[in-house]
Amino acid sequence: MRIVVLSPSAYSETACAMVVRMAELGHVPVGALALSALDRGTLLRKFRQWGWQDFTHYARTKLSPLQKDGQAAVRNPYLRPMLSRGNGIFRSLHEVAAFYRFAVAICRDQNAPESIARLKEWSPDVILFAGGNILRKPLLDVPRLGVLNAHLGLLPEVRGMSSPEWSLLNNVPVGITIHFIDEGIDTGPILRKYEFPEAASCESLDDLRNRLIAFGIEKIAEVIPALDRGTISETAQPDLDCDPQFFVMHEWLKQRAAVRLVNNRRSVVATAHG
After folding, report:
1. Ordered DSSP codes for 9-46
2. Is the confidence at residue 51, as pLDDT, over 80?
3. Helix or strand or coil: residue 85?
4. Alpha-carbon gap, residue 64 to 73, rounded angstroms
5. H helices then E strands: how many in the chain?
6. Which residues on adjacent β-strands are paired with residue 65?
7. Are strands 84-85 and 88-89 parallel, antiparallel or unpaired?
8. 10, 65, 185, 273: least surrounded by Cβ within 10 Å?
9. Given a cut of 80, is residue 67 above it in pLDDT?
10. What is the pTM of this model?
11. Domains along the chain?
């Protein structure tokens, strides 16, 4: 199976970990298309998603390759096992590509004509979306099977941004949905849904999101071989009376979601000792 990865930048830990996990299973991509790390839209998107402190920490990990203990800095600690290479850490798609021998292209817009042309040259069966632009039909039509995404929420109940937090506030189980991307927002056909069994043990919203990202990579790694064998089929999402599409959560709502997470954790602990 010919696989291409779309990445929000060449320095995306998620994209690097996803590629390494695929390669470990014998599915080395034929190429990766990444947005420029200095792209204004990319930087603004990361700032809005993470806030100033996390954004600054991310930039510092890229500028300062070692922590005080001499270990390479990794923003998401749950991706470290996938990013480890001997005594070092894969720090960019360029390093991963040099190790596994595939091409990396940098673009200003994943939907731009030159990006579409590059993707067509790679002739992918499936594209794995690790982040970037909202994808348009010309790009979605390139892969033979489609563009695959690991959404950090259960579909169709929780679509859009801040999915783990909205799941907590709306009493929807925290989980992952592996689905094909279409022209809507998280409305494409579903391949697999997984509830996250360790949600109640997470210490914070950041901890939850980091664990979910690693969990999603493992689950998309299970789906790819099934797609390759033709033993998995897609299911259309049901029509809903109202579209549960959520946007980036306001800080005070995020605090309420954090309290809900802590209360869930305490409840589980109390039950275990009851």
Report:
1. -TT-HHHHHHHHHHHHTT---SEEEEE-TT-HHHHHHH
2. no
3. strand
4. 8
5. 9, 11
6. none
7. antiparallel
8. 273
9. no
10. 0.88
11. 3-272 (3.40.50.170)
Residue that has been written with the tokens 């979601």 in this structure? 257
The two structure tokens encoding residue 152? 């950090």
User: Which position has the token pair 């859009």?
Assistant: 160
Model confidence pLDDT, tens digit, residues 102-141:
999 999 999 999 999 999 999 999 999 999 999 999 999 9
Dihedral (C-alpha) 167, 172, 176, 178: value to the nearest 10 degrees? -110
- Which helix (H) or strand (E) segment holds residue 127: the answer is strand 126-129
DSSP class per residue in 183-207: SSSS-SPEEEEEE-TTGGG-SSHHH
Contacts of 33 (CB under 8 A, 6+ apart): 4, 5, 6, 7, 104, 105, 107, 110, 115, 118, 119
At 176, which amino acid appears? I
Contact 130, 104 (CB under 8 A): no
Two structure tokens written together for 14: 């998620």
User: What does pLDDT average to over the chain?
Assistant: 89
Q: Residue 202: CB partners within 8 Å, gap ≥ 6?
A: 208, 211, 261, 265
Q: What is the pLDDT of residue 158?
A: 95
